[in-house]
Amino acid sequence: MTAPFKAGEIADLESLQRPFTDIIHSDNKPEECSVCYNDYDDNQLRPRNLPCGHTFCSQCIDNAIKNSQLSCPSCRAKHAATAATQFPISYAVEAFVRKLKNIQLTTEEVVPAKPYEGPARGISKKLRSLVQEQKSIISSLITSCEEVLSQLGKYRGQLGDWKTHHLQLQDRLYALVEQNKSAMKLLELEDTNVMDMTTQGEKGKTQLQAMLGSLDTVNTLLVVDTTIGTADECSMKIEDWLQKCQELFPNVKTVHTSVKVQETIREALEMMAIETGATADPVHLGDSASSIMNKVQEITQKQLTVEDLRRMREPVKRLVEAGQVLAVQEDQDGCRSARITLQYGKLYLHPLLRQPTPAHAHTLQESEVVGVLEPSCTLAFLDLGWAGSTRGRVTIRLTPDTPLARQFVLLCTGQRGHTYRNTKLLQVWDKGEPGEYVMGGDYESNDGEGGAPLLSDLYGQYRESVRAGAVLCFDEPGGPTSAQFTITTRDRQGSDQWFYVFGDVVSGLDVVRAAVNHSDIREVTVVDCGVVLPL
What we know:
The chain is of the alpha+beta class. It contains 13 helices and 18 strands.
């Protein structure tokens, strides 16, 4: 088959519109990229997995990226991306290709060995046992060799990615150096112009001072007339010089270029300081049984501080916006992590989940992050969604220092292992009537029967309310479902009050009302939750 694209040629999205029979080419020849039909390698054609599950070579992925978006050639799923290196390498495909090549070499070059017929007759039982023991040792060593070789292959792939990143960074550094040189040339030219104008100004000033002395000593009409004429000429030159100074200085392009280049380089240096700061303390790589890639992950996992988040300098801001900052918590069952995001100028802490920590993530200890929440944490959020999409965010201002509010924070952040994430809204009461409200938050059974309290004592001083947007506990505090929450969507009439109010919706009440009007309230899910970090 003739490949429609050779290695190095650019394939646009229109070129990827191929029949289904071509798309399933990878099922017949998994060692080839189904776009360019070239065998995968460990350089430009490294196999990479897309989030949709399909695999293509790095070069074809780069060629297919348009306007920071990639459309999968197989299923047409859309993925946000600016470079192929954002997608993980398919080490399984690489291992398969290496194994396939080894099989081909063996088939072509190796003469089949004579089948093993077992130990020679006459060997004693003891010797046969020694032979079997030696075979077991060798087999175990072969298995260990294969595991380490696999790890070395993965490590080599990671090293290749890092080399590529270094080359890309080197190009960017060279560009910064060139920008700095250009800015320096502009500054030198500006400095020369300033020196020339300064010389002219000093000369004019000296002449004016001389004229001032001459006017003090004139004693005849002729001398006065001559001196005044000379003084007028000097004055006109100085006025012209003053005008030029106002027009020429400062040179807007020179100043703007210098400031921007300085800011860019300073930010790059600050980022470098953050990147290298984690190496100040010795890195402990655990026992020798840890795999090579586990040790690599321990080295590359970086830690920021809460103070870094408070300052929110540009390098840290970019890390947060890129989703590279996580809060982590270690327990007896392993590690959990929570995303920290920046939206509308506010930092949001999402719930702790059992999920893989990205290799290049910057982490903070969850206890340090949560430490800034109490007792000042007053804002929590619930993201509601239905029909396959998130419909909006509900922001709730909690009543500080009340047990129900503290419990709500625990379930929004997942600090105790349970969270409102993926729980359903359960039931709407008095729908369309005054006092309408909706209930949710059964983190245990998700059917309204669960939602046991996380704190032993939930009694405290709570408000009463008749207003829409009140957030309350419908059950008696400490009751079997007192971790569930209720949100009122219409004002109550008369003197009846809602009790155990521990918060109010400050934005997103329209989202709750839209959920209430959905055809089936149990299709409405809390797709995400968390708190606003008061930094």
